[in-house]
Design goal:
The protein is an alpha+beta fold. It has helices at 19-24, 72-88, 103-106, and strands spanning 5-7, 13-15, 32-35, 39-43, 51-57, 96-99, 115-119. The longest helix is centred in the middle third of the chain and has 17 residues, at 72-88. It binds guanosine-5'-monophosphate and zinc ion. Residues 15, 18, 20-21, 60, 112 line the site of zinc ion.
């Protein structure tokens, strides 16, 4: 498979075969709930709860293991955005769940770092 690295308008690295990079570039449609220079949030295509939003860095970072120290501030910012979305969706007081599936044993299926924001129903533990 041919992998091409492309630089976006902000000099952010994109991967040509990555679904979430395509959503960032608006090549694939998604219901965007939040966007700024470095972060995008959109509804999951297969929602597992009344609120199921994916929050991602616009830069292509494959997963948490691959996250460089220099990009740690992106995750801090993502968590700030998650708090804002939870408030907008009216689930901040009742509570919600944040999930990051990392690599194969973590159950990650899309190789672009993302955090699931799940809410609007009772969550249970342990997850599968
Ligand atoms: P993971 O299993 O990697 O933690 O989560 C990937 C998530 O991306 C899944 O919940 C899946 O439903 C979602 N997903 C996969 N492809 C698309 C897509 O094209 N659009 C949107 N909005 N979500 C997607
Ligand atoms: Zn990507």
């Amino acid at each position: 498979m041919l992998l091409v690295t492309i630089f976006g308008p902000g000099g952010e690295r994109k991967m040509s075969d990555c679904i979430f990079c395509k959503i960032v570039d608006k090549e694939i449609p998604a219901k965007v709930v939040y966007e700024d220079d470095t972060v995008l949030a959109f509804n999951d295509i297969q929602p597992q709860a009344p609120v199921h939003v994916l929050v991602i860095p616009k830069k292509h970072i494959s997963d948490l293991t691959a996250l460089a120290e220099a990009d740690l501030s992106k995750v801090t910012h993502i968590f700030k955005v998650i708090k804002e979305i939870a408030k907008d969706k009216g689930i901040d007081e009742e509570g919600y769940r944040i999930v990051n599936n990392c690599r194969e044993k973590g159950g990650q299926t899309v190789g672009h770092l993302h955090f699931h924001l799940l809410g609007g129903r009772q969550m249970h533990w342990p997850p599968g």
